[in-house]
Design brief:
Strand content of chain A: 5-15%
Shape of chain A: extended
Number of helices of chain B: 19
Strand content of chain B: under 5%
Radius of gyration of chain B: 23 Å
Order of helices and strands of chain A: HHEEEEHEEHHEEH
Helix content of chain B: 55-70%
Structural class of chain A: alpha+beta
Number of strands of chain A: 8
Oligomer: heterodimer
Number of helices of chain A: 6
Largest interface: A-B, 107 and 134 residues
Distance between the termini of chain A: 74 Å
Shape of chain B: globular
Radius of gyration of chain A: 22 Å
Largest sheet of chain B: 2 strands, antiparallel
Strand order of the largest sheet of chain B: 1-2
Helix content of chain A: 40-55%
Distance between the termini of chain B: 28 Å
Order of helices and strands of chain B: HHHHHHHEEHHHHEHHHEEHHHHH
Amino acid sequence: MQQHLRASCVFIFGMTLVTGLAYPLAITGLAQLLFPYQANGSLIERQGRVIGSALIGQSFTSDSYFHSRPSATTTADPNDATKTVPLPYNAANSSGSNLGPTNQSLVDRVKADTDTLHTERTDIRVPIDLVTTSGSGLDPHITPAAAAFQVPRIAKARQLPESTVTGLVTNYTQGRFLGFIGEPVVNVLKLNLALDDLTK
Amino acid sequence: MTANGFLQIACFFLIILALTKPLGGYMLRVFSGEWVFLSPLMRPIEKLFYRLAGVDEKAEQDWKNYGISMLVFSLVGFITLYILQRAQLFLPLNPQGMDNVAPDLAFNTSISFISNTNWQNYGGESTMSYLTQMAGLTVHNFLSAATGIALAIALCRGFARNVSKTIGNFWVDMTRCTLYILLPVSFIIALLLVWQGIPQNLGAYVDATTLEGAKQTLAQGPVASQIAIKMFGTNGGGFFNANAAHPYENPTALSNLVQMVLIFAIAAALTNVFGRMVGNPLQGWALFGAMSVLFLAGTLVVYAAESAGNPAFAALGVDQSASVLQTGGNMEGKEARFGIANSALFAAITTDASCGAVNGMHDSFTPLGGMIPLINMELGEIVFGGVGSGLYGMLLFAIVAMFVAGLMVGRTPEYVGKKLESYEVKMTMLAILILPFSMLGFTALALLMPAGLAGISNNGPHGFSEILYAYTSTTANNGSAFAGLNGNTFFYNLTLGFAMLLGRFAMIVPMLAVAGSLAMKKSVPPSSGTFPTDNGLFVALLVGVIAIVGGLTFFPALALGPIVEHTLMQAGTLF
């Protein structure tokens, strides 16, 4: 038994050095050298200030920006630490809604969001991703359908022709990898930055 | 369902098919102790380990000593991981000042990671320091995977050897697996994942001011190095709470494909290792075939269910149909970049294997879409399965299948040259019955306790499914969740912890006994009366036995959860 114990301690300690320190630190060093932008979170800066990450979604509420998908992330309630309050796109506490398909509050939430979006336009149905929360609550993307749905609102708020806004959406639509892997998406933050650049 | 979706599923499967033989060949050389291209680099480290540990690499162990080494190793791992979590506030590499982890949560998490489960009753970015993630959780991502693979190799030796008292040396198998297989692949994959956008730094969380002027705190960390082994070792524990749905943990379609391939790669290759070890690669391909049938069937059901969307949304003016502009379907809890096909495929893969990483929230899947992951785990994760555990689980079912076939024709069953007698069949049944005992037993217990019912976050049959899923996932050492269940309570930390222990170690010990007993037997050459186990008939028999054993055991529980929820959803009932 003593031999089993000695070997166990040696292997746990030694493997911690190899796989728990040497390996991640070597990867950190190489990553910082080879891919510093990605390794540090794909941060986007404007005038020397970090305004977000190209990979992490943000909450947009203004009529002149494309809106992201709803987000179910929360934060600790400042009044009662045992409870949480909604904080959409909280990138320090990722989470989905975990509402099941037969949950009344899921259907109520989708109905309320859909009704709000139908005040913008009633000519087409609301794309599903615009009224559902993502798994991470930090989805940086919307579908091309969700972007197209919002074009008239943006065009009106920014006093641009719809064709200009649609053209911008097309430019910022990322296709599938190798043409068939993944889904086509639009990065909301990058698109909104391009909108700001356009009307500056 | 779209043609593109089917194409992506087919593409994934073809990659696995192509990897199985070359990776299997390499692994066989590693476990045979042959010189491989990494030997000049790794051999000195390997020898240093043996010298310090007092291990003679030439000395093999019988099944009992092999098992004791494995159990003591796991116990020491549990204790050190527990201490690390309880003391992280006083240790370096904690830029966010994460507090020491509470005792019950640290207990649950330690068991979870030594048992290759990676069930998480915590959110990584809000609980664990970088040191805990690296020197604690990442380490056991490697070691629990290496342990599982070593055990599968030991069972293969039991079948392959002729009148042998020993089944290998645990320390040698575990060390070689880590140094020659897990570490080098993780190294390359981690860099590839950084290139795709996964962060790898030791800095504090970054405060950003969003375009609309709000404050956003961006969690950081040494993520990529953990994600590579999380997938390759079918561990599945996320660096972040949202796991592989988090854009920092799985940023692109390519990173998603790579991660899915990693989950199946070793388990698929092990079927090839088995076939070659018993002297007939077709024996391995027969297991691969049975796994493929179950994999593709399950994937298609999830894909169909999720594509159909939620009927409760239909009347609201929401468009759930697939088109060139959107993937459609049930998008609650799913990421836009993965859509329906990749979320469904990932859910099937992660529960076929004992991975448990998720790129969409299973709790928000449709009832039938969420039922397939449940079934996959209830069968014991033998569809490719966890690294090592998938193969030994499938081999146990192969023993049962041959036993059933033997009963039908009245002959002593044989499998790959070994006679299966009462001792092997009894031990096999013991190992297989542990699963329903723990999954259903703990579910029943939780349903009877106020502390159990308090964890439910969805009403109606879905709440029952949440509890069933939790004990199924932990017993099967999967780690995925219907994550609405609030598991970070004293009751759940404890009972889920015990379920993980039972599912891992109470299954391994009888399995090793089978390995030891088989190794001691004489190999009998196939005769005209031998039931061939390398053809389509055997695949059909094996799939049939799995479906019957699984179906008889779990149908009643499934009927109370996902099945009744599906019918109620179709009828428009909400809770």
